[in-house]
Hints:
It holds the Pfam family AMP-binding_C. It is a multi-pass membrane protein. Belongs to the ATP-dependent AMP-binding enzyme family. It comes from Oryzias melastigma. The protein is an alpha/beta fold. It folds into 4 domains: 60-70 and 86-243, 3-Layer(aba) Sandwich (Rossmann fold), CATH 3.40.50; 252-370, Rossmann fold (3-Layer(aba) Sandwich); 372-485, Luciferase, domain 3 (Roll), CATH 2.30.38; 489-620, 2-Layer Sandwich (GMP Synthetase, Chain A, domain 3). The chain has 20 helices and 30 strands. The chain has an 8-stranded mixed beta sheet with strand order 2-1-11-10-12-13-14-15. Helix 5 links the parallel strand 3 and strand 4 (135-138). Helix 4 (86-102) crosses helix 5 (120-132), helix 9 crosses helix 11 and helix 13 packs across helix 14 (348-358). The longest helix is centred in the first third of the chain and has 26 residues, at 2-27. It is globular. The relative contact order is 0.08. Residues 5-10 and 12-24 have low confidence and may be disordered.
Amino acid sequence: xxxxxxxxxxxxxxxxxxxxxxLQPLCFPxxxxxxxxxxxxxxxxxxxxLYRWRRDVRTVLDRFVEQARRIPxxxxxxxxxxxxTYRDVDRRSERLARVFLxxxxxxxxxxxxxLMNNEPDYLCVWFGLAKVGCxxxxxxxxxxxxxxxxxxxxxxxxxxxxxxxxxxxxxxxxLDLQQKNIQVWTMKSHMKHTLVRxxxxxxxxxxxxxxxxxxxxxxxxxxxxxxxxTSGTTGLPKAAVITHLxxxxxASGFWAFGATESDVIYTAxxxxxxxxSLVGIGGTIELGAxxxxxxxxxxxxxxxxxxxxxxxxxQYIGELCRYLCNQPKTEMDQAHKVRMGVGNGxxxxxxxxxxxxxxxxxxxxxxGSTEGNLCFMNHIGKIGAVGRxxxxxxLLFKYDLVKYDMIKDEPVRDQHGFCQPxxxxxxxxxxxxxxxxxxxxxxxxxxxxxxxxxxxxxLVKGDAYFNTGDLMAEDQEGFIYFxxxxxxxxxxxxxxxxxxxxxxxxxxxxxxxxxNVYGVEIPGREGRAGMAALIVxxxxxxxxxxxxxxxxxxxxxxxxxxxxxxxxxxxMTSTFKQQKFQLVQxxxxxxxxxxxxxxxxxxxxxxxxxxxxxxQSVLSGEWKM
Length: 625
């Protein structure tokens, strides 16, 4: 009898196991991949929490110094065909650190701004400053004079280091910098300018002996270690606070996706953005891998570079992949070792075209903002999804999708004042709860802007959520999809455009009475192109040449409105905000819009009338934007 019962139990167990093995791939096809990925996330999180409890933080810079000792002769950066080893960059950054200490007289805790293009010395300067214990502020190389001064003010920088190829950008504000007692240094030899000093001249006389390690040491993982500037609703750039916690999380991204130290990573994104610096360089350091660094992205050089250097992973934004797909087809399209792409903003149609043409490359989308407290990672490679979620992820990172009123431009709240979550598959505003696990560190020098990014009393009284400003949807399988961006920011040419900044610049033109800036979709193009609805002052006429001159002089290329629409009345919402929704929906088609339309014309150096012929040229991609 006992033997019979044992056989029954054994038979039932075997049957259950067989059923589980059969049903699991059908009902839970991503179970094991989700579990393995989540274990990596938990492992990384536990390590960070141990840093917090022990108050002994091993930073990304500490990891770099460790790698320079472990693999000194391994190429760390390949730039313009030549390699800099881990030892090379380590020693040069040590010599720079001594210049910063002995000649520039910097000390631990000082904030130093960097205005440099991608080059190996960007990393040497960055690491040299970090070795002294300075907080580093990365400036966008597209910003103009007024914005440079604003950025320095809001992060409290009293030293500016500028690349040799960007000195001309500062000519108009050098006296202003001097009056503010801001010292300017450049990576150029034999400077004759009295207001700019040469780092290279000082570098030649310094040793590469290590500066004291205690200068870079930190006991708090939440200590700010840099500022990265991001556009927002206030117009001028905002200094997002980046702590050691955020930098360490970003540096684990490649590892979480399965990268190893044998990988060669291709980065053509600007280092002043978190994707290239924190994820790209930080991730390379964490692995002990090699990074092929480009000054700028070139669609024609991309695949030859990948073949020449044995690239296995590349960083992208969606626009980059579209440029590659638009290149002439060749028989070498799949002759490469690239196995993975890591980035964001890849449209489904471009994604499919890219894989069909260039082979079986796993595209790993990352969703997140520089200052945000939430990150989604599409580790499955599901086409079109920006991230992946499941019940375990939600236990660790609390987020919600809530109903959003596009007309009123605000979340929908019920009779009790609380937001209303959307159902699975529905589009809603993505909010991420602020907690000890997911803190929000805000912006330097402006508590008001920090508070403005928070929504309070969202689901229960007293809670606080970070407002991403993004409309998202989550399907039944837990994949997250980006739908649209709300508010006063849109994305064009891989950059965030602050509509109020553009409006302020255009509003300075004498014939402009009121401006409403927004983004419009162009079929086949990533993001949204800028468009400005204008009201012309009484007794004035629209002057396309004057508006062009203002846009080119005071706005970076990606922020210049591509289209202009003249209106007699500016529509407002019930809360007295400019109405954008209807303008965005109507687009820029001259055959359906009765208002006068103009287009940015670089050939004529003016905003010229948008004709049906030009409209078709824009749609076909022939018009220069």
